[in-house]
Amino acid sequence: MKFGKEFVSQMIPEWQQAYMDYACLKSILQEIQTSRKRTEESGVLKRKLSGRRNFSGLTKRYSRTASSRELENQDILVHATNGDDGFERYETTILKVAEAGREAELVFFKTLDLEFDKVNHFYRSKVEEMVKEAVVLNKQMDALVAFRIKVDKPSSSSRSSSERVSVDMNALDSKEQRKTVDEEMGIKEEENESKESVPEALSVLDRIRLNKSTLSTVRNVLKLSNQEELKFTRENLKKIEERLENVFIVFYRKLRHLKNYSFLNTLAISKIMKKYDKIASRSAAKLYMEMVDKSYLTSSDEINKLMLRVESIFVEHFANSNRSKGMNLLRPKAKREQHRVTFSTGFFAGCTVSLVIALGLFIHARNIMGTAGQKLYMETMFPLYSLFAFVVLHMIMYASNIYFWKRYRVNYPFIFGFKEGTELGYRNVLLLSFGLGTLALCAVLVNLDMEMDPNTNDYKTITELLPLFIVALVLAISICPFNIFYRSSRFFFLMVVFRCIAAPLYKVNLPDFFLADQLTSQVQALRSLEFYICYYGWGDFKRRQNTCTSSDVYNTFHFIVAVIPYWSRFLQCIRRLIEEKDISQGFNALKYLLTIVAVSLRTAYSLNRGNDWKMAAWVFSALATFYSTYWDIVFDWGLLHKPSKTWLREKLLVPHKAVYYIAMVLNIVLRLAWLQTVLDFNFSFLHRETIIALLACLEIIRRGIWNFFRLENEHLNNVGKFRAFKSVPLPFNYAEEEDRDS
Question: Could you report the per-residue pLDDT of 538-561, keeping only the tens digit for each?
């Protein structure tokens, strides 16, 4: 792999604008090379560069710091100055300039200096943030140690002052290591030897309060205190340790990213300068890299010191002094693509395709669609099995989303908040989807043309229960506590589902409203689940008979089930409106309220035909469609903005602009699928249940398209704000911090 591609692949996506613009510098070098070749071919260049120098006015200032002999052997001089903001600025002057490529070389070094200043400035600002955050974490560790003492030995506050406790020293493995780290951190040895007494350590507890979990929303909405009095219990200690452990893991990840940022940019400068020397026949790389080595980007050692200190503290306090365990938590191993996943995915994909073909041939060979039981089958068994089609299609769309997010470097694990190394790749999702598809299709083939027993007028019980068995199996796997079938992802999914159901009792994060939006596209799947309960609970499934559609209770829940996803999303918007004071969330809530009315009216019209219901369904569906389409394109996707020349947006990840226009058109067309409900399009060769299933599939496809551009827009917002890390709540809050905030 060429360095340029490797450089881009190792960037932190949200910081990509803060890296060296290697591609731009490389393009300038290509101009220099082209210019020199053109000059040589025309015969203009008749002599090589000699010791003759063309000094610019800027160069004269260096005469006091560089001897004439040194200047004769140098191609460039780099001068450092301090800007008004306190940060260093670098300016390079070319001492020997040939006519060929002169302007391009000047542009090259001007661009290189600006890029290096940008990188140096960004790195220094981030390091300063990390140092400030380290101070906060030290105070959190002081509180944790005091809390542990109080829990382990409640009477320790009356002990002798001769007993000692020190957070920082306990974090290090040996006296020699402590001395080394403290010397690096600039801490005096005398200060290290002066440790706090136990009563002094416990005095920290008088100034702190516990921060409650940010998931608690009722307290936040009512603007009540989000803190609680200290209760020195084992349960509280465990919660505090878990939260602080997560804080340290995230902090250490930031340090690793910054270290990698420094290394990558230094390597990029070295590579581009070597290319410059080769193309321009100069020896400027060594001099420029000497300047880079002296700059803050390379010479600063704060990150390494902080990493050593964090490792020592984490191993001591969160890994029971087991360094191997602690480092595995701080540096989780990168997940490797497993060949068995790829093989299994291909195997089940082949099975799914084969079974679909076999199903078509089976129906055609036995003329099942022309039999007397066709209508009965479509009204009973088809809604049961269509549930799996909706789920499998949605999973395939999500897998395709993951593939394209990775291809265009959308950092979806960070956006969704997945634990590092636990996110599923597109192959994993396809494996699950094709596995479920294979299982469902096998069940369809088994009981598709079951003959009724003439003596009992019953179908075989086992085959009739197959759909229910598959649903029960999926639910059992979903809640299985054992570490199989991607347990971390399953539990994350169940947690988000619970928070969607419990809206607005929990703080709304992106995974919450993203999943709620997915559920709005699975209304028909939710209605299929309702049919499962009615069919197997109150119907005579052995004879494929039920009275679901004629039941008032069933029809009432037909409304409720369709509204639940939109109502959950509506409550989430209200929660964000109150908590974040974001007026746009109020308009978003209005969108879902309109959709609730439209869906209810369309459902009422499908059950109770009449012109009044039809007109009302038309009006509110049209309003909801226009409102939702506008919101999708302008707010969720960030497109159609006036400052952009193309009416898209300034930054696009997909290089082909036509993709965005096609997506907008498809979104509009697929949103109009509700027209069939009102216009009553009838196709003689399609059963009503088939039409309903096809329309539901179109909505799932629309949602899959929406997913990609929604996360693309979110990713670009993170890039614009250099937001590469989630804020992690701290367990303790100091009284002075509370006073300062107020």
Answer: 887 878 888 888 888 898 998 899
